[in-house]
From TrEMBL:
GO biological processes: glutamate biosynthetic process; L-glutamine catabolic process
Domain STAS positions: 334-414
Organism from which the protein derives: Allocatelliglobosispora scoriae
Protein name: Glutaminase
GO molecular function, one term: glutaminase activity
Gene: glsA
Superkingdom of origin: Bacteria
Binding residues for substrate: 66, 116, 160, 167, 191, 243, 261
EC numbers: 3.5.1.2
Subunit comment: Homotetramer.
KW Acetylation (keyword) present: yes
Stored NCBIfam families: Gln_ase
Annotated keywords: Acetylation, Hydrolase
Amino acid sequence: MISIDAVADTLTELHDRLRTLDEGTVADYIPQLATVDRRLFGLALVSMDGHLYTAGDADVPCTIQSVSKPFVYALALADLGLAEVSRRVGAEPSGEAFNAISLEPGTGRPANPMVNAGAIVTTSLVAADSPEQRFERILACLSAFAGRPLDVDEQVFASEAATGDRNRALAHLMRGAGSLTGSVDDAVTTYFRQCAIRVTAADLAVMAATLANGGVNPVTGTAVVPEPIAMRVLAVMATCGMYDAAGDWLLRVGLPAKSGVSGALIAASPARFGIAVFSPPLDATGNPVRGVAVLREASERFGLHLMHHRPAAAPTVTSVGPGRSTRPRSRAAAALLAAAADRITVVAVQGALEFTETERLLHALDQAISAAVPSWVVLDLGRVTFIAPGAASMLDGLPMRLRDHGVTVVVVDVGGLLTASSRHWTGFAGLDAAVAWCEDQLLADQGPRVGSA
Ligand SMILES: NC(=O)CC[C@H](N)C(=O)O
């Protein structure tokens, strides 16, 4: 079969080339992890439409390890809110390894939820009546992110529970400092179980895509967490997800990401896709060698760096000009409307309105008003597909501000993009009706003169 898909081809090409990159060491401080085949190499990408692309061992299970941390952070944020969670776990890159004892002097608050200390506290914050229920909620949450019921690799769990003294020590330190409340044993046991949840690269790509998609799983359509939470989780991943390599990662790859000692790595390109790589050998910073290489290349090739300049796709304001309706008029009224043609201006807008487009629209309106001194402006949103909440708030005060200048603004807003959320706007379902309404107003204004004409 001839492939016409650049996404599938790119994954296959990256997989075939980078499989020869045989550097790094498989983690063995959790003995069971050392038994895994270092050659395993899976790639998966999930688009915002829920299309899955894979290459290599994308269906081979591994334990999620630290890649669980952003998702449990999301759950804690959903349970407690940002203010409460931030009181307990910071959001500063530690600049240290994942298992560093990086606690804020004095408070003992861990640096961020992406290192072990912060993750142990975050796990303990998940609302529950018992440790068992807490873990069930974590498993259910991660399963919703993945879009299928996940389970636990009991051997890896047992292996880490038997050897995880450093994490236990961290938890004791935090309990001593007061940043971890409750039982150390319960906190680390739940954390170890969470790290032993079994996933494939394909699952991880869906999970990352859910974060990229504003918290809505693009495969199942389930709203897993509210958009502001997905945004904050991505922010913490961007600054802290790659441990002490986080700065270099943001510089070179420019995507929120999270790695784990099993060799799992996810990255999310907001509003574009989630990607995951599974390849066990790790570099000196604890990040998977091949995963890092894949993401560096993919980011470069698809132009994905978050800080890329993205020019607007199309003009926002497509026309500015006088408006005339088809409503039948008396001869006198028609003459008056013709003479006052510059008093009704139609501004036609298209596309998705975010900050840039809305600033552009406001600027065009400003110019139209100063050039023609209209008394009525019809904002035609007939071809607007989306208004971001921030953009709607930029437009919200417009009717009142224009009224101060003697201008009435109305909107053609078939989908209720503006009028559904704001009572400041007079909305019409069609351009003709909106212009006719303005004409009626204009004629009523001029009433005596129409009579005497
Ligand atoms: N970086 C990681 O994936 C660490 C997770 C592992 N379970 C640990 O706590 O040591």
